[in-house]
Amino acid sequence: MGTFEVPPAALDEVVALFRDRVVPAFSRHDGFLGYEAFTDRDSGCYVGLSFWASREALDASGDTAREARDEAAALGAVTVGTPRILALAFDSRLPLAGGG
What pLDDT score does 98 carry? Predict the structure, then answer.
């Protein structure tokens, strides 16, 4: 999960960067499962979540992720904190294990 502060006027460019360039670059890595992006247009907040089959697959994409952050920075996006690696605890959209 990566969070950026983006000048609101540049938010569409940052969204396009991730949609049109970063996601296809991630897609070339084995184990890439998908990407979701969330924005707050009033404040210029952008949060991107990438999904991977394994920690190893995520780790193998490190250079691509660094390039994405650099390209976003060139558009005025400032990374908030450090990217976080989180494990799924549960997803209400998926059936519960054990037949629940």
Answer: 60
